[in-house]
Amino acid sequence: MEPRIALVHDFLVDVRGAERVFAALCDLYPQADVYTAVYDERGTEGWFAHRDVNTSFLQRLRPSARTFRALLPLYPYAMEALDLSAYDLVISSSSAWAHGVLVREDAAHVCYCYNPFRYAWNAREATLARRDPFTRAALAVILKRWRQWDFIAAQRVDRYVAISETTRRRIGRYFNRDAEVLHPPVDTARFTPSDDVGDAYVVLSELMPHKRIDIAVRAFDRLRLPLVVVGNGPDARRLQRMAGPTVTFAGYLDDEHVARLLARARALVVPATEEFGIAAVEAHAAGRPVIALRDGGARETIIDGVNGTFFDEPTVDELARVVASFDPTAIDPQACVRSAERFDVDHFRRGMTAIVDDAMADERPPRELRRRRPRGLALAS
């Protein structure tokens, strides 16, 4: 008898890197049922319209990509309220709360983890620093409770799969759990290198403060070089106000436009620490180099001088210096394409299938033993 499978994602309200990975999981397990806290078919551009998407009680509020963050304190409860008792295998796709679902005692739970919830863990201090004193105090209490819930939830997972070495280390530090690294799938077939490369550099990202896009905006304003910023998000207005005449904002672009833009870009610029950085691999698939902060997942995708280069500090001065000295024409486009092929969809499918099959074959200790916090373990700051 075939096992009953559930796939769980944090939220499905737009299409970003995590949603592309989740779509690949849906393709890998077409018979599985899909669960998420909230779902917006229009915001996800119909990517999951062919699946029966099960949602939590929060769906009654009809949240969108603009409003779903306001419900932040409720998401852990929403995930625990999902009824997954009918499933033999649960695969969660989590950057926040999906790993906290409750599964049947004898079921296997494999979590593909992009990052422990950044605002409660590795970005906690920066998150609090941006708030006024009253909001900061209230949010600090919420995040403390979240960390407690998050740690306990992590002990119930049978197998963690990390998107990168950066995420693997954070899972170990914050959750005291081991994880295997499986890089995310990139649809490299979407991209074709172009002989007609232009003068503009590109940033491709959600416009959030932690993405540090302001560094790129200020650096290219200083250099008087053309920069195209692709993406939308809550930081858009602030970035537009600071931008000089050589920086343009393209907003959201569909896959076809992104592929054409990357193929003609002088280089892709990644100004922040990324857990992996799918956009960088997409740029490589389009035959273009990447200029990235020497941190996080970029160290697993970029080979200095072969498919791009690094800058060492997240400052305007350092990025401007490296952009001015780096010659993208010295990079072989075919070397970039070969680099991207390491992360194609087939590689992910084979790796995920092997991990899930192994997890299903494992003997699993009772969950009540795994949910206890190890004696003397302090929550990492």
Write up this protein.
The radius of gyration is 21 Å and the shape is globular. It has helices spanning 17-28, 75-81, 124-129, 133-154, 165-175, 213-223, 236-242, 255-264, 278-285, 298-301, 316-325, 333-340, 345-361, 367-370; strands spanning 5-9, 33-36, 53-55, 89-94, 108-113, 159-162, 180-181, 201-204, 227-230, 247-251, 268-270, 290-293, 308-311. It is of the alpha/beta class. It is built from 14 helices and 13 strands. Helix 6 (213-223) packs across helix 11 and helix 9 crosses helix 12 (333-340). It folds into 2 domains: 5-185 and 345-370, Rossmann fold, CATH 3.40.50; 188-343, Rossmann fold (3-Layer(aba) Sandwich). The strands form 3 sheets. The chain has a 7-stranded parallel β-sheet with strand order 3-2-1-4-5-6-7. It has a 3-stranded parallel β-sheet with strand order 8-9-10, with helices on both faces. Strands 11-12-13 form a 3-stranded parallel β-sheet. The model is unreliable at 369-381 (pLDDT under 50).
Report the CATH architecture of the largest domain: 3-Layer(aba) Sandwich
Categorize the overall geometry: globular
Query: Residue ranges: pLDDT <50 for 5 or more in a row?
Result: 369-381
Mean pLDDT, nearest integer? 92
Question: For the report, how would you describe the main beta sheet?
Answer: 7 strands, parallel
Q: How many helices in DSSP terms?
A: 14
SSE pattern: EHEEHEEHHEHEEHEHEHEHEHEHHHH
Strand content: 5-15%
Overall domain count: 2
- CATH topology descriptor of the largest domain: Rossmann fold
From the alpha carbons, calculate the radius of gyration and give it in angstroms: 21 Å
Structural class, judged by helices and strands? alpha/beta
CATH class of the largest domain, named: Alpha Beta
Order of adjacent strands in the largest pleated sheet: 3-2-1-4-5-6-7
Percent range of helical residues: 25-40%
Distance between the termini: 45 Å
Number of strands: 13
